[in-house]
Design goal:
Helix content: 40-55%
Distance between the termini: 22 Å
Number of strands: 7
Order of helices and strands: EHEHEHEHEHHEHHHE
Strand order of the largest sheet: 3-2-1-4-5-6-7
Radius of gyration: 17 Å
Number of domains: 1
CATH architecture: 3-Layer(aba) Sandwich
CATH class: Alpha Beta
Number of helices: 9
Structural class: alpha/beta
Shape: globular
Length: about 250
């Protein structure tokens, strides 16, 4: 059940990769709590505009910010513009991600770089660019990174994706230690298999059936269930939680 209150009223949240899938659900969940949501997208402005309509329908305010998280200069410029346009940045959700699957011995340098540039370097770029504003947030800044169960377990055929998501956990823990003295929290959410376009593309029916045998709750999760966890970590209820990896995986990893 979604958290619906106005505990995030007056807060400005940036959600990277916010136009579709889990990112879109996160934008809506934050809006339901009253946040103004800045929706980042890399290329699909049409999807971002549709997400903005959903945010406003949920009772929040929406703004769009198109930039590539793997480009440090573009990230710096965008974050500065957000500060100028909206007056603050209180919540940063690093959700932008890409999966390029392949086995270790045949995996190309190009694909390795692409996955790490977006999934791991992108989060580093946004955290570094936003850190000063988060330290000056109205109450306490929040950073929430979306990692993955495979970052904790590994997964054959996902060498770059698993490595990037494992690195994101290390980035989360170190950021939490460095910013805690100023009240800024940094946590990660580790989803299991969630029903998204990415999952549908990479999960044939036979593999889906086999996967069910590994999930104690016997179903694939919904984007909204991840989004509700983000809304919790962004809110006042989570003010004493930092450096934590919250698993939303149906019991797949305990």
């Amino acid at each position: 059940m979604p958290i619906i209150d106005k505990a995030l009223a007056g807060k400005v949240a940036l959600v990277t990769g916010g136009s579709r899938g889990i990112g879109r659900a996160i934008c809506v969940a934050l809006a339901q709590r009253g946040a103004k949501v800045v929706i980042n997208y890399a290329s699909r402005e049409d999807a971002a505009r549709e997400c903005a309509a959903a945010v406003e329908a949920a009772g929040g305010q929406a703004a769009l910010s198109g930039f590539d998280v793997s480009n440090a200069a573009a990230v710096n410029d965008a974050v500065k513009a957000i500060g100028k346009d909206h007056g603050s940045l209180d919540i940063l959700v690093n959700n932008a991600g890409v999966a390029v699957n392949g086995m270790l011995m045949r995996f190309s340098d190009e694909n390795w770089k692409k996955v790490l540039d977006i999934n791991l370097n992108g989060a580093f770029h946004t955290i570094r660019a936003a850190a000063m504003m988060l330290l000056k947030a109205k109450t306490a800044g929040r950073i929430i990174n979306i990692t993955s169960v495979v970052g904790e377990t590994g997964n054959g055929g996902q060498i770059a994706y698993a490595a990037s998501k494992a690195g994101l956990i290390g980035l989360t823990l170190t950021t939490a230690k460095e910013l805690a003295s100023r009240g800024v929290t940094c946590n990660a959410i580790s989803p299991g298999f969630i029903e998204t376009d990415m999952t549908a593309e990479h999960l044939p029916e036979a593999a889906r059936a086999k996967l069910m045998e590994q999930i104690p709750l016997a179903r694939i999760g919904r984007s909204e269930e991840v989004a509700d966890a983000v809304a919790f970590l962004a809110g006042p209820e989570a003010s004493y939680i930092t450096g934590h990896v919250l698993r939303v995986n149906g019991g797949m990893l305990m």
